Amino acid sequence: MPPAQLDDAQEPLSQASNRLLEIARDTARSAALTESDMPSQLSEFVQTYREWIMIERGALGTQQEQVLHWQMLVHCMISAATVVEAVDLLIRFSPVVWGDRAPREFRHEGDFAILVLREPFRPGSTGLIGAIWMLSLLLCALEFLADTRFSGAFGRVMHEPCLPDGVQHLLFDAPLEYHANELALVIPSRHLRRPVVARGANLPDFFARLMPLTLGARRGRADMRAMVSGLIRDDCQGTSETLADRANVAARLGLSETTMRRRLQAESTTFRAVKEAVHDALAKEWLVAGYLSIEQIAAKLGYSDSFAFRRSFQRTNGCSPAAYRRRMKLQR
After folding, report:
1. Cβ atoms within 10 A of the Cβ of 182, count?
2. Cys-Cys link to 156, which of 27, 108, 112, 180 (CB 3.0-4.6 A)?
3. What is the pTM of this model?
4. What is the dihedral of CA 177, 178, 182, 186, to 10 degrees?
5. The architecture CATH gives domain 224-331
6. Burial grade of 76 (CB within 10 A; 0-12, 13-18, 19 or more)
7. What pLDDT, on a 0 to 100 scale, did the predictor assign at position 274?
């Protein structure tokens, strides 16, 4: 932002920051934040936070332009196979969204990966909130791609602690390292190996929930069923070089088979049930599309022969694959 524009923005930005902190002092007493039972103070905090962001990021274009650019960037990152590949895409294309403020460096330090931002330093609570916003936004995007919470991730800021007690929890659901020589998101390296399981169809819901997500709300435990389903689907569609059997899926998720089984059981399902559901959904998609024969579908889904596929499909759906294809063709 040019100096004149920066000076013009300081007064409304400072006013918005003061309102934000005033509301946050009252709201921070809420230890657990959820969208379903937000108190009125938190709703006011969210609205003020939204206004603050629009003033803070105003130099990057209108709200609509920023949303469209950010959607484009996240959609691009979805094409990656793993989180580390998504970060590489982020660094390559984020200047389109943030210009000179885009992430500028990605390095490793021991068991951690460091994503460094070029956000200009500004002292005080206003500058700290701006730094926290960028860190939270990036963390939420990466967690969305992997559909899991990145335990152990935290932010580095160049500021001193200058927010009221409890406010940090409202803005960034992770501890901050103060007095650093850089603004950076620090992620345990194990998370970089996680597969990207998000799909384009998930984007509208993600952007609808982005504001509470950046506030630390509803960033709970990952949906294990969704992650396992995504890897099995990739394998069946030929977009993965790794066979999606139980052992390989667990390894790609960074889990033991026992832990994966326990997490699936907690969601009232099993690996076999998830795999059968994916196979059934893909079989129906391909039968309706019509460009694959029944024999080809059986082979893509890993059946020993088309007879085994027909028998499984009949047991699940009460009709043969050919009958299902004919029925769906008549309905179109």
Report:
1. 15
2. 180
3. 0.55
4. 10
5. Orthogonal Bundle (1.10)
6. middle
7. 92
CA angle 264, 270, 273 (to 5 degrees): 135
3-state secondary structure of 261: helix
Cα separation, 256 vs 56, in Å, equals 44
Task: List the chain residues with pLDDT less than 50.
Answer: 1-10, 27-42, 59-63, 165-166, 173, 217-220
Phi/psi at 184 (5° precision): -150, 150
Element (H, E) at 177: strand 176-177
Q: What DSSP string describes 187-215?
A: EEGGGGGSB----GGGHHHHHHTHHHHHT
Contact 196, 77 (CB under 8 A): yes
> Structure tokens of 84?
């580390």
Q: Between the CA of residue 146 and those of 3, 82, 105, 228, what are the distances in Å?
A: 39, 8, 21, 11
Looking at residue 3, the DSSP 8-state letter turns out to be: H
pLDDT of residue 28: 43
Point out which residues pair with 113 in neighbouring strands.
108, 187
Phi, psi of 160 (to 5 degrees): -90, 160
Backbone angles phi, psi at 127, to 5 degrees: -65, -35
- In sequence order, the β-bridge partners of residue 38 are none
In the chain, domain spans: 62-214, 224-331
Task: State the DSSP code for 15.
Answer: H
Residue 183: name the closest of 238, 77, 101, 302 by CA: 101
Q: What is the pLDDT of residues 312-329, one digit of tens each?
A: 999 999 999 999 999 888
- Secondary structure letter of residue 215 according to DSSP: T
Q: Which two tokens stand for residue 162?
A: 């200058």
**154-156 and 112-117 strand pairing:** unpaired
Helix, strand, coil: what percent of the chain each, to 5? 60, 5, 30
